[in-house]
Amino acid sequence: MPKRSRRDGEPAAPPRADTPASGLTAQERKAAERRARYQRKRRIIRTGQVLMAVGVVVALVHWLAHLETFGGQPSGLVDLVAGYPAAAVVFLVGAVAAGQRQ
């Protein structure tokens, strides 16, 4: 008799074919887990690099605003919140993520 799920008495879903434990040998399962960890780590590093680039762009736009390229000086609140401090925080968060060891 198939297993029943906890809701509505429907049968439990069969295991997915793409899960590491579905019919693989121990060596294949280890290789799949290693590959998944590596891909996750690469995504984190790539995301960190993108955040670093975004931080540089925010700082550049803020610097251009101080040069009155966009019409005038930024207000005090914008200067405190969305200027260099925001660029530094975004850049540093990206640097931490991009600096993860493999």
Q: Main sheet, how many strands, which sense, barrel? A: none
Tell me the Rg in angstroms. Answer: 24 Å
The shape is elongated
Report helical residue fraction: 55-70%
Mean pLDDT: 82
Task: Summarize the model shown.
This protein is mostly helical and 102 residues long.
Topology:
Elements: H1 26-66, H2 76-81, H3 84-98
Helix pairs in contact: 1-3
Structural notes for this entry:
The chain has 102 residues and is mostly helical. 61% of the residues lie in helices and 0% in strands. The chain has helices at residues 26-66, 76-81, 84-98. Helix 1 runs antiparallel to helix 3 (84-98).
Could you list some keywords that capture this structure?
102 residues, mainly alpha
